[in-house]
Automatic annotation (TrEMBL):
Designated name of the protein: Cytochrome P450 94A2
Binding-site list for heme: 276
Cofactors that this protein relies on: heme
SUPFAM superfamilies: Cytochrome P450 (SSF48264)
InterPro entries linked: Cyt_P450, Cyt_P450_E_grp-IV, Cyt_P450_sf
GO molecular function terms attached to this record: heme binding; iron ion binding; monooxygenase activity; oxidoreductase activity, acting on paired donors, with incorporation or reduction of molecular oxygen
Signal peptide (residue range): 1-24
Family, per entry: Belongs to the cytochrome P450 family.
Coiled-coil regions listed in the entry: none
UniProt entry keywords in alphabetical sequence: Heme, Iron, Metal-binding, Monooxygenase, Oxidoreductase, Signal
First-level EC class: oxidoreductase
The enzyme's E.C. designation: 1.14.-.-
């Protein structure tokens, strides 16, 4: 579970800092194991995932009624998460009231200034933490595994991290935008192993799909990104192969960008009016973590066994990704800000 929990905690820390303008002192000093907010949230989610598949429906229902065992632990974890997030919200409210003119405009600021009730803001913050934390960590875990099986792609990535004679260049936002191969590798990894393997929408009104299928009001329509990423009709005969180069064409290479792919063909971040609002931030976080690690370390799997893809609420690698970490030969080429 090393890579999963490392990427999970790093992405969680980045979320706190960038979206909520808050970060526990322990996280600032990189002591992630004792971060007061990350601990209850991670514990709550792990408990949820484990209990969801461990017990029969009637058993956990009875435990919930009696408030015993795993249901009692889950209830306590949820309470702790709520209290932790509310504490952050109240601190932000005090900050806004004390110095409103000079207060920043992070996501939490905007939610509070929009006049939403505290419980609504609390639930929105928790949803965003869950959506942005588990998904990015799962995506990076699969990418590290794929790169361990495709060393030539990893070598190309490491080369992309090099800036020639400019060895003092920092890894910042502008630098990340130049790393097209890194973004292509992430897209290709998520095509094969999407963080959300399936998703559903409920029709707000009656409609007819392009193929003539009638959808009634309130009907549930489910789509399957995991299966779509392996459809020969969409991605060609090599659809099951890890090929980051499929995200480039002659025109995109000339422009220095990835080729445009229809989001309905690659619905990892959804599409249309419901497209993921954190898409670009997710890419920035993942690119920063992957570049920071691969620039300095070589990740090697402990076992040669093929990992199992588990499509839960957020899809992940069964048992985590157990690895050996070695320093990469040569000097460090990029600095971290």
């Amino acid at each position: 579970m090393l890579i999963f929990f490392f990427t999970l905690l790093v992405s969680f820390s980045g979320f706190l800092l960038l979206f909520l303008d808050t970060q526990p002192e322990q996280q600032r000093s990189h002591n992630y194991n004792h971060a007061p907010l990350s601990h209850p949230i991670i514990g709550c989610l792990v408990s949820f995932y484990q209990n969801r598949h461990r017990l029969l429906f009637l058993v956990w229902k009875m435990k919930r009624i009696l408030n015993v065992g795993s249901e009692k632990s889950l209830k306590e974890a949820v309470k702790l998460v709520h209290e932790s997030v509310v504490k952050i919200i109240k601190a932000k409210k005090d900050k806004i009231a004390f110095n409103e003119r000079n207060c920043g405009m992070d996501l939490l600021d905007r939610l509070l200034k929009a006049g939403h009730e505290e419980i609504v803001v609390r639930d929105m913050v928790i949803s965003m933490i869950m959506a942005g934390r588990d998904t990015t960590s799962a995506a990076m875990t699969w990418l590290f595994w794929l790169l361990s099986k495709h060393r030539e792609q990893e070598a190309s990535l490491v080369k992309e991290f090099s800036f020639g004679e400019n060895e003092n260049k920092c890894l910042d936002y502008e630098c990340l935008k130049e790393m097209k191969l890194l973004k292509a590798c992430l897209c290709e990894s998520m095509r094969l192993y999407p963080p959300v393997a399936w998703d559903s929408k409920h029709a707000g009104g009656a409609d007819v799909l392009p193929d003539g299928t009638h959808v009634g009001k309130g009907d549930r329509v489910t789509y399957f990104p995991y299966g779509m990423g392996r459809m020969e009709a969409l991605w060609g005969k090599d659809c099951c192969e890890f090929k980051p180069e499929r995200w480039f064409d002659e025109e995109s290479v000339k422009k220095g960008v990835l080729k445009c792919v229809n989001p309905y063909k690659f619905p990892v971040f959804q599409a249309g009016p419901r497209v993921c609002i954190g898409r670009e931030m997710a890419f920035i976080q993942m690119e920063y973590v992957v570049a920071s690690i691969l620039n300095r370390f070589v990740i090697s799997p402990v076992s040669d066994d093929y990992p199992r893809f588990v499509p839960l609420l957020t899809a992940h690698m069964a048992g985590g990704f157990k690895v050996r970490v070695h320093y990469r030969n040569g000097t460090q080429r990029i600095k971290l800000e």
